[in-house]
Amino acid sequence: MKTIFKLGLSGAQGSGKTTLAKAFSERTGIPYFDADVRGILKRNGFDCRADMSLPEYIDMQETVCRELFNSYPDHSFITDRTPVDVISYTLAYIPPTISLDTELGRSVELSVIDIVTSIRQALDKHFSHVILIRGSLVGSDDKSRTDRASTHLAYRMKLESLMEGEIRRCVDFNFSTPIEFRVMPENIKQLENRVESLIGVYEKHIDQFGYETTTSH
């Protein structure tokens, strides 16, 4: 019998999550799960670079919640998008001028509460570890892509701050099964060093359940 290890990598676009997740999967044999948020958006007619009204943005995030949270596998996996990312992207769309004195403001508040509830439930059900990957590995090809959110420095910093804040809130949440939340130090930039960092987390998780790990070094 093997213990279940479900690791989610959070981070702004261009932080190298997908590259790291695939490299870790190849090294350990833990299956890589492609969250395919871009596919979810495309199938439902959303363009993350288009100008949308606030209700349209909220609808987009609610759609991601429904499809993504129902697709996480039951076996061990590593993935490059977590519920922490979803709430962070949602909050990034909320303007500072929003008010509870308007029907829109009240509607958005209720929607955000529903999204936060869905996120807590998805984390509780599907994850054993969530690690925030900070910093940027944006290449020239990434900057020209139109199928993902902006890689502008200010926007990525905003998302990263929101994700770190959400992780801090999650640490204090009473999950039915403990989830380990971590932030990878920003000075760990080389892929091999990042993989080694994740392997350390993996081996610690395996060892605490008394199972022998066969991870190679």
Structural commentary:
- By secondary structure, the protein is of the alpha/beta class.
- 51% of the residues lie in helices and 9% in strands.
- It is built from 8 helices and 5 strands, in the order E-H-E-H-H-E-H-H-E-H-H-E-H.
- It has helices at residues 17-28, 37-43, 54-69, 83-92, 103-126, 140-143, 153-171, 191-208, and strands at 6-10, 32-33, 77-79, 129-133, 180-184.
- A 5-stranded parallel beta sheet has the order 2-3-1-4-5.
- It is globular.
- The chain starts with 5 loop residues before the first strand and ends in a 9-residue tail after the last helix.
- Mean pLDDT is 88; it is low at 211-217.
Architecture blueprint of SSEs:
Layout: E1 6-10, H1 17-28, E2 32-33, H2 37-43, H3 54-69, E3 77-79, H4 83-92, H5 103-126, E4 129-133, H6 140-143, H7 153-171, E5 180-184, H8 191-208
Parallel strand pairs: 1-3, 1-4, 2-3, 4-5
Helix pairs in contact: 1-8, 3-4, 3-5, 4-5, 4-7
Q: Uncertain spans, ≥5 residues at pLDDT below 50?
A: 211-217
Helix content: 40-55%
Strand adjacency order, main sheet: 2-3-1-4-5
- Counting DSSP E segments of at least 2 residues, the number of strands comes to 5
Largest sheet: 5 strands, parallel
- Taken in chain order, the helices and strands follow as EHEHHEHHEHHEH
- In round numbers, the mean pLDDT is 88
